[in-house]
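Same chain as my last thread, 313 residues:
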Amino acid sequence: MIHVHLGPLPVWFQLFLLTAAANPQYHWLIFTEQPVTSTFSENISTKVLTRKELETLIHKKTGIAVSLSNPYKVCDLKPLFGLLFEEHLQSFSWWGYCDNDIIFGRMDHFLKPEWFDQYQIISTYSGYLSGPLAFYRNTPGIKRLFTRVPAWESIIKNPSCQGFDENLRGHPAGKTLADILLFPFHIPEIIASDTYFLPAKKEILHQYHWRIKKRQAGKHRLYDMTDIAHVMEKSQKNTVLFTSLLASDIYFERTGLKIWEMVWDQSRLMEKITGKEMLAFHFRQTKAKLREIPLPNCHNLNRFTLTNKGFHA
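reply #2:
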C-alpha cells in the first residue's frame, strides 16, 4: 500500500500507522515530507519525499511539469503511483493506495485470496473506483492505465485537485429518461450490494448515480479512473471487482446511522452499536474535529474507539 502525504503530519497519523501495522500480511510504503518517528512494525517503510522531489519524479516518469502547491493534488496522482514508485514495487505482484484518515481492521478477513488471483483492480466502493483505498495488479499495462484518459496530461498539470482518481469534477453522470424509468429496477441490486447495512434513501440515490455512470461507460470519451474501470468491466468480465468494504462517517450519514462508535481491538474493527465488523473506516468528516481533541498515546495501545466526537483510549 502506497501513501503520500505533503505538509505537516496530521495528529491522527500514529493511529493510522498502528492499525496498518496490525496487518503484517500487507506492506505499507509511506512517503512524507516530515520524518516519521515510529512505524510500530516492519511491514511499514517510510521515506522522506519533499514536494519538490515529487514534482521532479513526476517529470522524470511522465515528462510533465507539475506544481504541487496544493497538497490535496496528491489525490489526482494516486493512479500514477504504480509508475512513479515502480522501483519500490519490483518484488510485489499487487500495489494499492490509501489515505491516512483511515483505520484498518482485519484486512485478510475481508480481502479474499482468490480475488487477487482473478481480478486486475479491486475497489472498496461498490459503484465506482475508490480513491481512499484501492488495489491494482502490478503489471506494465495497469501501471499506465491512467493514460487511457485522453486529457490525463492536462488533468495532472492542473494545480487544483480534479478528482481524477474517482470522478472528474465537471463530468457527472447525466440522467436520461431511460435512467429515470429504470431507477426502481436497480433498487434491489443496490440493497443487495451493500456489505454492512440496509441502505436508506440517501444511500440508494447515491449508489444509483454511479450505476448511471456505469451505464454510460464507453458511450463518451473517458474522463477519469472510474470510467476506465467501468469500460474494463464491460469489455471483459472479472477484471474489476467493486465491493462496499470501506465504511465511512459519510456513508453512515447516508444510511441513517446518526449515532455510531467504531471500536478497534487488537486489529479487529467493529461498529459497536450494530455489531458489524468492518475492513476499514474512513473518518473523512470527523477528522476536522480531531485537530482540537487530544488523542491517546499509541504506544502499547491495544484498543481505542472513534465516535463523531473523536478518538478515545
